[in-house]
Amino acid sequence: MEPILEINLDLIKALNKDATPSEINQLVYLAKQYNLDPLKKEIYCLKFAGKPAAFLVSRDGFLTIANREPNFDGMESDVIYDGDVLLRRGDGSIEIKYGENHFKFQKNQIKGAFCNVYRKDRSKATSMIAPLVDYNKPNNMWSGFTSAMIMKVAESMAIKRSFALSGINSTEEVDPDPTGEEGMAGAIQAPKVVPPELDEKYPKLTIEQVDHIRSVLKDRKELEDEFLGKCTNKYRLVDKEYPKLSKIEEVKREDYKAGLKWIEDNIKAMNN
Questions:
Q1: Mean per-residue pLDDT for 4-15?
Q2: How many helices (H) and strands (E) in the chain?
Q3: pTM of the complete model
C-alpha cells in the first residue's frame, strides 16, 4: 500500500489542538499506514482533557481502504427490521429474508444491521451483525438517521475484521463523549445528551408549532439565533444538563406562546 505523498503537519496540528506531540505523530503514522487523508476526515483524532486520544476512521475511510485492496471482492449489507429472518449460507455469509415490517421502514422496528465482506483469496466471507441496542446513541444523528448509522457500524466492523486493520476504530463504534466533558481535539464537537426525563419534563414543540414559528420568522436568521439563545439560557438556569438549543425543533412547548409574541414584537420593532 503506497503512503499518501504529503501531509500538512501544521494543519493537522491546528485541527487537533489538544493532542500531544506523540499523539499527532501516531495520527500521522496511521494516516500514512492506511493511506487516509486527515484533512478529508477519513481519519482523525478524538480527545478529551486528560484522556488518551482515540484514532477514528469514518465508514468512507474504511471503504477507501477496502477498495484499494487487490483481494477485495465486494460486500453486501442491509438493515434488519423486526420480523426479518437471517440465514447462514455455505460460505459463511449472511442472507436476509425480509419480513412484513422491512419495507415499512419504521425506525422503531429496526433491530440492527449486517454486512458481508468478500475476498478473492478466501472461500469464506467475513460477516458481522451490529445490534442496534449495542450502538444506538441519544443524539441527533442516531435519532434522525438510525438505519444509515447502524449500517455504517456493521460495514466498518466487517471491513476492519476482513483486512485485520489495527490501531483504529470506526466513528460510529465509539461513544463521542464518554465523560460528558468538552475539550476534544479534532474536526467534530462532542454532542451533549439531554437526559430522557428532562425531555419528558419539558416536551418539545409540535410539528405545527415549529412550522408556525418558522413562517413568522421568515428566514430572519439573526432573530432565530437570538430566540434560541434566550430559550437555552432559561433552561440552563433550571437544569444544567441542557445543551445549547440549535434549531426550532428543540424549543420547549411551554415557550411557544411567549416565544411567538417575542418574535412578533421584535419583527415589528425591526420594521419600524
A1: 69
A2: 10, 8
A3: 0.61
